[in-house]
Amino acid sequence: MSAVLPPATRSAPGDDHPPPRTPGLHDLALVVGPDGGLARPDRVDVALRAADLTALVRQAGAEDCDLRILTAPGERNVPLLRGLARRLGRDVLVPPAGAQVVRRPLARTTGVEDDLVAVDADGYPVDWLIVQPGGQVGSAFGWFELSGGRVRQRTGPISLPLPDGGVMLATRETFVHTRTAAAAIRVGHPAFVTLGVQVRSGDFVLGYYDRSTTRVDAAGLAAALAALPLYRRQVRLWLRWPDDEADRGRLRTNLADFAEVTGATVWVPAEPAEAVLLGGCLDLAAVDPQGAAGHWQAYGPTGPFESDVDGRLVPTGGVRVAHLPAVDLVSGLPARERELAERRGAAKEPAAAPFTCDLAVLVDGRLAVRYGDGSLLAVGGRQFTHLLRDAGWTGSKVALLSSVTPEQAAGVRLHLADLVSHLGTAIRLHEGRTA
């Protein structure tokens, strides 16, 4: 038996009686004109530019709102909407290709309130797509919840999930930037859970989906994060130290109290450094105000970790490396080291050959090295340079012998580009490609 669908009433664009406005969301009733561009319903022959759309939003006083376009824009108009999102610093919500926007009752029994719903050609709900200010288009976590073709307002505190089980706390003003950072960071050492926090006057800032904010001390932060298992964990705080000395003193007290309340070892960049995301390895590093690598400081019991030359928090004891007769530097899984030793034997490359290395390759394509505790962590740019020099590298070209799958290739190229910028010389893959 086919499903009974709520009746689709009239199409949303140009509707004289729109449903109640969703706070923080501004609707643009546009149509696709004869030339394929986006246009106003009353001027379908005039294709709008990003500047024109921005002006419409500003005239409505909706610059601080996310936008919802009430028609499927088509692939041609995606660059236009990217430009609009970038200009406003807000998300633009659009129906997917082939969908339309209809009005349906929120309460099926009474039909008192209507809502705008994206549906496919058969009338089944489909989720809206998000065009982000950074240019990404998809179904990423947004300010609004997208479910069943509807756009719903979220409630409660703002927190964005991180891949290691931690969260990034945000406010409405920092939401877009924080979401970008949360999406970029990758899993590091399995012992760590990362918490991104904002600091104001030495206290922690909590933001809510009603756009309000509040400052809390260590106990308030612990209460807000009560659902996270932090007891006896190694916790990294992604934060920036305040400039005022009194505020720093207040933050020191809060950090010590947070470690005591949660029972965790709490790592923070040693003041006055801040935690930043490094390109290439996509891991956190402590960086001082001059941009040089800093180091991390622990509140609570100190775990078996130390700061490396990139300012990252890594296991103590450094990287495990091997030097084979025909491979200058190997660091990765022991099985790979044995394979290389057996395959290449004791054959020597000509003296003019490039410096050779074989590193582990993570699932996402980042190149990694092995530490004494057996963990594989993506290699940083300064760290990679030091490892090569310690192995006898004198500035020649470098050949990477690591096996790379097609799925890993894009990630490897991105990481190699960062490593090349530190080395100042080319890194050639064993297939003959050059980063």
Structure report:
It is a single chain. This protein is α/β, with parallel strands linked by helices and 435 residues long. The chain has eight helices and 31 strands. It has helices spanning 50-59, 78-88, 175-184, 218-224, 245-262, 334-344, 381-390, 409-423; strands at residues 25-28, 31-32, 38-39, 66-69, 92-94, 100-105, 114-119, 129-131, 137-138, 144-147, 150-153, 159-161, 167-169, 192-196, 198-200, 203-207, 213-216, 234-238, 265-269, 274-277, 284-287, 296-299, 305-307, 313-315, 319-320, 329-331, 355-361, 367-371, 376-378, 398-400, 427-429. The strands form nine sheets. Strands 25, 26, 27, 28, 29, 30 and 31 form a seven-stranded mixed sheet that branches. α1 crosses α2 (78-88), α4 crosses α5 and α7 (381-390) packs across α8 (409-423). The radius of gyration is 26 Å and the shape is globular.
